[in-house]
Amino acid sequence: MFAVLKNLGWFFQLEKKRYLVGLFFLIVCGGLELLPPLLLGNAIDDIVTGSISWGGLTQYLLLILGLVAVIYLCTYVWMHRIFGGANLVERLLRTRYMNHLLGMMPPFFEKNRTGDLMAKATNDLRSVAATAGFGMLVMTDSTFFLVVILFAMGFLVSWKLTLAAILPLPLIAVGMVIYGRAIHKRYTAAQDAFGVMNDQVLESVAGVRVIRAYVQEREDQQKFQDITDDVYRKNLAVAKVDALFEPTINFSIGLSYVIGLSYGVYMVFQNEITLGSLVSFNMYLGMMIWPMFAIGELINIMQRGNASLDRVNSTLSVPPDVPEPEQPVHVRTPDSVVFDHLSFRYPSSGEDNLKDISLTLKRGQTLGVVGRTGSGKSTLLKQLLHEYPAGTGRLLFAGVPVENLSKEQLHAWIGYVPQEQILFSKTVRQNIQFGKKDADDETIMEAIRTAAFDQDLHTLSDGLDTLVGEKGVALSGGQKQRVSLARAFIADPEILILDDALSAVDARTEAKIIEHIRTQRSGKTTLISTHRLSAIQHADWIVVLEDGAITEEGTHEMLLAANGWYREQYERQQLENHLSS
């Protein structure tokens, strides 16, 4: 049950001073709360015997008021320390979790649903944080405070009356063990269902246009209804067990009251205790209600925390598919990129997706990659990003294997524009500045002109400050591509990768962008994959892929002379352009 506290031991060690101060004042507060009932009992005995005076009564009242003030101050300190620690651990865990996700590569996200990852980052981390705050409170109150109250009842009033009153307590212990196991199992299932629901919402919102286009609104609503019903049923199962805690405790406390009051009255008549002592005892018995509830809350919150921490740790414990090298080699500039008999296979593939690729690309050169759909163009370009475990053969940057380079240095060299553009729900300006945070308007406009997006600015409602919407929904496909291109151009990377990044623009705009690339990226390496051969005619070297293997390579003129697939495709596209014009 307390595994969650053990697993959070690093945090308690880090914030040792905070928790020592908080627990100290919590214990002091618990001890001071025992004094008012004792003072009240003594005052009642003095009243019964007629030995109290106005001065004595005033003294009792001032003592009780003083204790209340001190208890108030102590409560403020321990609440600030302990509950502040809960907020702190939630922040630290969320930061660690986010950093872990940012360090993971595509294979990880292919196996994990986005909605479930979001559920862990919200609900689960909140449950874990609760154990560092409210959990510490109920653990202290259900142990130390309970023991202190029992001590006060037994030694300050009557040990016989105390033993009789606590006879029902074993009922609570048995119930808590049974309920705790059920809570852990059911809460884990409920959180898993919440993750599935999150994922469904994300898919529905992201694919709302497709859903409407295929008139699947009712089906999607029904699917979501089924999922929410499942979440409801599983959370209801948790609530059913949760609802058993309070009745069990109330029943046990009720028995304690009946036994304590009945036996206490008997002892008063037998002159074994005074009336004031019985009043004090009943007040202590009332004070036991919260520690009894705290036992139930302790089991509940610890089991929830355990279940949530297990889910979070299942993500945090996954090692990166591409680990950082222990001793990375520093390379100042990627003077060359060499594919040395490189073969590669995706983890989910049954055969090699790249086969014996050998290429050499010098700094400042442009490589064109063409081929049929599914021939391996994107796979070849993505090798430079080093997002998957290496296959056979080698990929070298300036003579250094990619496995020996740090990810930070490798990615700092590369500007990547994928087939599917990802824009953030910010303005056009902010999306472009993502490539260079401190870029001024002139630098931004230069990147926009390079991407041939300057003629579109006047069509946007607020120019550079136009919000692009979720994933760029407010822009057309061609506009999204050119904003993505501008974002890459403004970074002025050593290696620019354009993965079919001109597919949504017309031929004239494409020609303008290619001309800008040729003039402004002199001395920088560029790799372009495309279906339109006009985009790579200027390339220093062109490769044709088929089923992951290079079937043709050379310059544009060499490939035309070879009379292969490249020439056939070029002539077909030239004919299509002629007919369309």
TrEMBL record:
It comes from the Bacteria. Residues 337-572 form the ABC transporter domain. The keyword Membrane applies. Its main location: membrane. It is a multi-pass membrane protein. The chain crosses the membrane at residues 20-40, 60-79, 128-155, 161-179, 249-269, 281-301. It is found in: Cell membrane. One of its GO terms (molecular function) is ATP hydrolysis activity. Residues 20-304 form the ABC transmembrane type-1 domain. InterPro entries: AAA+_ATPase (IPR003593), ABC1_TM_dom (IPR011527), ABC1_TM_sf (IPR036640), ABC_transporter-like_ATP-bd (IPR003439), ABC_transporter-like_CS (IPR017871), P-loop_NTPase (IPR027417), Type_1_exporter (IPR039421). The keyword Transmembrane helix applies. Keywords: ATP-binding, Cell membrane, Membrane, Nucleotide-binding, Transmembrane, Transmembrane helix, Transport. It holds the Pfam family ABC_tran. One of its GO terms (cellular component) is plasma membrane. This is ABC transporter related protein. It comes from Paenibacillus algicola. The lineage of its organism: Bacteria, Bacillati, Bacillota, Bacilli, Bacillales.
